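Q: Structure tokens for this one, please.
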Amino acid sequence: MTTLDGTVWDVDPAKQLGGVRLKVCVEGEYWCGDMRTGQDATKGQGYYAGSLWPEPKAGNWWVAVVDAQGRALSEAVLFQTDTHSCHPDGTGRQWVIIDFKRNY
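A: Here is the predicted structure, written as tokens:
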């Protein structure tokens, strides 16, 4: 499985931001997905998580904070995944963690 999670933080580093929308897209595919913070109360209101692909997938992905119309409110952050082994001594990258911090 290929997954992305992280936390969206307020300017105050002790506060997480709930209800924030994010959009993630993969290069070479006509696929983009929406995510929203606050879906797991045990992780805090700024936490987001989602499955990007049902199995390990190599690719270049982008994630950004967006408004209700899907327009970017942050820079898009590039991340890469691969299909290498994720066993303890493997080099695989299928679980990516990206945090955002509000700067105003």
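A few notes: The mean pLDDT is 95. Residues 9 and 101 are 5 Å apart (CA to CA).
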